[in-house]
C-alpha cells in the first residue's frame, strides 16, 4: 500500500457548483509524487475549476483533497507553502515590470531585500527575460508573460506545480520551449499537474492523463492506454496518377493487411495504421510498382476522436458546427 | 547556481506551519503597500485626482464663493482651505474601494491568494499605500492655499497636525469604501455607491459655508455630520492653533467607523479571498 507521501495530490469526489451549473461533478484524482499529470479536456470541461480547488483558491462544495497529505481546506496555509500556481490567465501584475513582479513575489515568499533581488535576476536569466526585465508587462508577448508567470511560481521551489493550460495561444516554437522548461522542472524532482486542450501536449509531457468532460473524469490512464482505447493513427496517401488506385489498394492490402477507405474523388487513400514500421515495406512495394505519391501523411487520433470514443459525443462546438473538425491534425479544440 | 536545476526539497520533508504570525502579517502588508506605490510610479495618471483636484477646487471655490460668503477672498481662505482639504482627501479615499475591486478581479490576485502570506495583506497593503495619496492631496491643498494668500495663524506645527488628522480620518473612511469594493460586483458600481454616500457627507457640512444660514433641519444634520467636526477641528488647529472638542469628536468618529467597517470589510474580504 502506498503511504501518503507517495501522492502529491489525492482528491476524491470534488464538486463545484456555480448556480445550477455543476462545473465539477465528482472528480477523483491521484497524482504520484515526481510525476507529470495531465488533465485533458475541452473548454469549459472544468479543468481550471479543479485546479483552483486544489490550489486553495476555491472552496469545494463537496469532496476532499490533500496535497502531500495536507488537507486543502483545513491546512490551506501549509498547502500554499507546497505549491506554485501558474494560472490560465497570467497571474502577474500587469502594471509592474518583470523584475518588480519577481521581487514582490520573492518578498512575499519571505526572502530579504537583497535575496529577492538576486532571486529575481536569477529567474529572469533562467527564463530568458533579462533583456525585457525593466519593461512594463503591457508590451510582453504571450510567451514572455507565460514564462514570467512560471518563473514567479518557482520562487519558493515548490514541490508541486499547477500549470493551467501553459501553452494555449502560444506559437509552436514558444510552445516547445515551454515543454522543455516543464521537462527540466520535472527532472529536478517537482511534481507537475497541468491542464491542456491538446492531446499531443498531454502525450508529450504527462505520465498519466485524466480526460475530463462536463466536470467528470471520463477516462484515466497513460497516454498509450488512452490512445489504444481510441484506435491507432491512420495513414493517408495521395497518388500522382489516379489510375494507379487499384494497384495501390492491392499493395496496401498485401503489405499492411488492412482494408482502405477511398475519398470520393478517389485520389486519397486512408488506411488504419497498426504498426508504423510496416510503412517502410509499403513504400518499397509502391516504388517497385512505379506508383508515385504526391502526399503521404500520418494522422494521429484527435481529441475529438478521443471524446467521441469515450463519451459517445464529440467536442460540442466542433461536432455541431464544424463537421470536418476531426480532420485537423493536432487535436486542437476550437474555443 | 540555477533555480531550476537544483533539486527540489520534497513536500514531505519540509517544515510547515498552518498559521501566520503577526510579524509576518505586518511584513506582508508592507510588501503589498510597496506594490501599491510601485503601481503609482508606473501609472502616474492615477495621481490626477490628488494633484489636480485640490488645485482646481481651491482656486475655483476661492474666486466663486470668496466675495459672496466672506466679503473678500483673503478672509474666505481660512474658512475654505480646511473645507477643501477635508473634501478633497475624503473624496480620494473612494479610490481605495474602486481600485481594490479592480485588483481583486485581476489574475494577479489569484497568485496572492495562492501564496503562503497573511490573507489580509493585500487589503491592508492597499489601505496603507493610499495614505500616501492623502498626504499628497493634503500637501498640495495647503500649498495652493498659501499661494493664494492663506497664512494659517496656528503655525506650521499645527498645520502639520491638522494634515495628519485629515489623513487619519480619510484612512478611517476608506474602510467604508473598501467594504463596498469588496462586496460590489464591478468597479463602476463601487464608484456609484461611494459617491452616493460621499456627497451628502461632504456637501451637507460646514466645509464651504457657515452652517448658521441654513434651515434648521439641515443645520441639525450638518452639526451631527462627523465631516463638519473634522472641518471645524482643522480650522481650530490651522487658524487658531487650538485642539478643541471637535478634534476629539472627529477622532472618535474615525474610530467608530473603523470599529464598524474594519471587521465587516475583513469578514467579507476573507470570504472572497
Ligand atoms: N466563477 C465562475 N462563476 C460561474 N461559472 C463559472 C465560474 N468559473 C467557471 N465557471 C463555469 O464552470 C465551467 C467550467 O469552467 P472551467 O473550469 O473554467 O473550464 P475549463 O478550464 O476546462 O475551460 C464552465 O461552464 C464555466 O462557465
Ligand atoms: Mg480553463
Automatic annotation (TrEMBL), chain A:
Record keyword Oxidoreductase present: no
Family to which this protein belongs: Belongs to the ABC transporter superfamily. Drug exporter-1 (DrugE1) (TC 3.A.1.105) family.
Membrane disposition: Peripheral membrane protein
Leader peptide range in chain numbering: none
Primary localisation category: membrane
Domain of life of the source: Bacteria
GO molecular function: ATP binding; ATP hydrolysis activity
Gene3D superfamilies reported for this sequence: P-loop containing nucleotide triphosphate hydrolases (3.40.50.300)
One BP term from GO: daunorubicin transport
Key words, A-Z: Antibiotic resistance, ATP-binding, Cell membrane, Membrane, Nucleotide-binding, Translocase, Transport
PANTHER family: ABC TRANSPORTER ATP-BINDING PROTEIN (PTHR42711), DOXORUBICIN RESISTANCE ATP-BINDING PROTEIN DRRA (PTHR42711:SF19)
Record's protein name: ABC transporter
Annotated GO CC locations: plasma membrane
Compartment annotation: Cell membrane
Domain ABC transporter stretches: 9-239
Organism listed in the record: Agreia bicolorata
UniProtKB/TrEMBL annotation, chain B:
Transmembrane segments: 47-70, 76-100, 120-150, 156-180, 192-209, 247-270
Membrane topology: Multi-pass membrane protein
A GO term from the CC aspect: ATP-binding cassette (ABC) transporter complex
Coiled-coil spans in chain: none
Any one of the GO BP annotations: response to antibiotic
Keyword NAD: no
Keyword hit for Membrane: yes
Keywords: Antibiotic resistance, Cell membrane, Membrane, Transmembrane, Transmembrane helix, Transport
Signal peptide feature range: none
InterPro entries: ABC2_TM, ABC2_TM_bact-type, ABC_2_transport, Nod_factor_ABC_transporter
Subcellular location: Cell membrane; Membrane
Domain ABC transmembrane type-2 intervals: 45-272
Superkingdom, taxonomy of origin: Bacteria
The protein's name in its UniProt record: Transport permease protein
Origin species: Agreia bicolorata
Organism lineage: Bacteria, Bacillati, Actinomycetota, Actinomycetes, Micrococcales
